[in-house]
Amino acid sequence: MAQLPWQQDRAQELSAADPRRIGVTARVLLLVGILIPINAFFMADLHRRGIEDPTVIALFWNVLFLFVMLRLLNELFMRLSPRRALAQQELLALWILMSIATCPAGIDTVKTSWGTMQGYAYFQSPQNNWEALFGQYVPESMTVSDMGALDRLWRGDYSIYEERNWRPWLGPVLRWTLLFTFLWGGSAGLAVIFRKRWVERERMTFPIVQVPFEVSRPRIPSIRTAAFWTAFGLAVTITLVNGLHSLYPGIPQIPVKMGQEPIFDLQRYLTGHPWRAMGRVYATSYPFGIGLGLLIPQDLSLSMWLFFLLWRLEAVVVAWLGWTGAQGFPFMKEQSFGGYLAILGFSLWAGRDYFKQVWQRILGRGDPAYDADEPMRYQTAFLIFIAGFVAVTMLGVSIKLTIAVAIAFFAQYYIMTMIVGRIRAEMGLPTHEIERLGPTVMQGNMLGHRLLGTQNLTSLSVFFGFTRGMRNIPYPHMLEGLYLSGRTGFSGRRLLIASMVVIPIATAFTYFWNLRLGYEHGIGADWNKWMPWSSQEAWKQLERWITADEGFSIGPALATVFGFAFYFGLQTVRSIWVWWPIHPAGFALSTTYYMMFLWMPMLLAWLTKSIVSHYGGRGTVQHLQAAAYGLILGDVMMGSVWAVYSAVTRVETYSFWP
């Protein structure tokens, strides 16, 4: 279709521009600077009122809502003043930077770490005996122990601007901000090292960012199809009606989510022994979940719901055999942890020749042209990673972790970071929560109190919050940014530098808004009920470890080895028989908490895609992709409207997820 004159002029202007100067431009940085504090406030307010955190899902819905609004505004500029409109590269750079700015405010970062910072001092009592168990080992440099400041925070009706309130937080907040800056800044180096292998050699599809990429395209081809508008209208209608039902119960609801309609709770039909061991199995049909399921590989969506049901069946068999007395058996989390390690291990093994070349360039050998087209030389990228690793290890040692435990902790953290990056790059799951498989939990569960000692376990518990679920970490977004920069021709180097600057700014604003709202409203008075629980989670876990006084646990270790071997076995079968329909990643990914919300959307997406690919042609498959965009955008946009309405009116409304 022919372009309009103003579109042709703008296209010629951009094609003549220096690619290093488009994308992360001054006005994009200005926009990001304006939006960061607004976004941090919005996230803190959602947290206060108990509205589900946008970072629980892989496609941060707060950023998508903002992105679509800016895209609509930009379309107006394109028509009225084309030279002032943002280019596609600028829009995508803004998407990545705002996603990274959201990471500190997410559920697995400041929200949980903030609770841990204050949880020991506020909740320790003679009844729980925490002071005698581990009180002397709690590092004061990264926690807050001023009971006056904490009491005012939990009661509310105070101001953060009073010195007695902000001063006790100043030192710990600065140290936590430094921790996230170095921890996530080091990830930028890893993103460069893995970029060529995953983007150019393996040609990962990065399903998550296909949505913002499509929205950023000139004239947005997908919205010119009936399939898009049909799906969009369906999703908007469902979320609109359910929102109206929450305000006016006389309006019938359209049940698509967990808890809306009891008849979809399959557990109510499986109440006898051993079937009740299956746990919660709920039939849902989240529109955005189905949409994301349509964008991921068909074999993966099949594997997700299939392995989810197999895990539940395994629990039934264990109960039937009477093996439930063995603590933790059958160690499903540890089995899946082995699978996660195998996801990265197989990727590294398959790319061993590439990584040999990378190592040669890090040492200053090999062909200089090998990394000439990278955002930065591999040697520079490696130094950035090492600098970050050394800095966070020193921070760990400063709170009395032994050097070996600190190195092991952050090594596992970066391993899990790369695993999450791989999952998003290849699979694009709706949620990639690696729940309770981070280094704090795995070291505590496997090595125990006898091997680690009270001081190490206590210091590890301080770091529990940002390793609890690994959902909102910047590394995958940095990698996606490099993918988008290569696809649209803007500077990945400038994007990474901007990302590393955004991290401390966004972290500082996140702490500020949580503290300001906390002192105004009171965490114990006008705050969601999750906060008291999350503030104690790490410390109650530490109490169990110390009280149990266990050493090395052979069961979880063997389960991890089994999971690793089982994944490799499935991958080997997949390599031999190309028709094999089971994706091995489903084995690891299907144990997460949120899979019980998403197994049915994965099944529906797989079934729909199977029928369309079998009976339809190439054009039909393309229409299905447009329908996927429609389901996602319709559900997220209407759901975001309800969230904004709730924020403005202070009236609880429908939450489209979970």
Notes on the structure:
With 658 residues, the protein is mainly alpha-helical. The protein has 24 helices and no strands. The N terminus is likely disordered.
SSE order and pairing:
Elements: H1 5-16, H2 26-49, H3 61-80, H4 88-102, H5 110-123, H6 130-134, H7 147-155, H8 163-201, H9 210-216, H10 226-247, H11 287-295, H12 298-321, H13 332-350, H14 352-362, H15 378-398, H16 403-426, H17 439-462, H18 474-488, H19 492-521, H20 530-548, H21 554-576, H22 585-589, H23 595-615, H24 618-649
Overall 3D geometry?
globular
Low-confidence regions:
1-16
**Rounded Rg:** 25 Å
Helix and strand run: HHHHHHHHHHHHHHHHHHHHHHHH
> What separation lies between the terminal Cα atoms?
40 Å
Calculate the mean pLDDT score and round it: 90
Number of helical segments with 4 or more residues:
24
> How many β-strand runs?
0
* Quaternary state of the chains: single chain
Strand content: under 5%
- Which class best fits the helix and strand makeup? mainly alpha
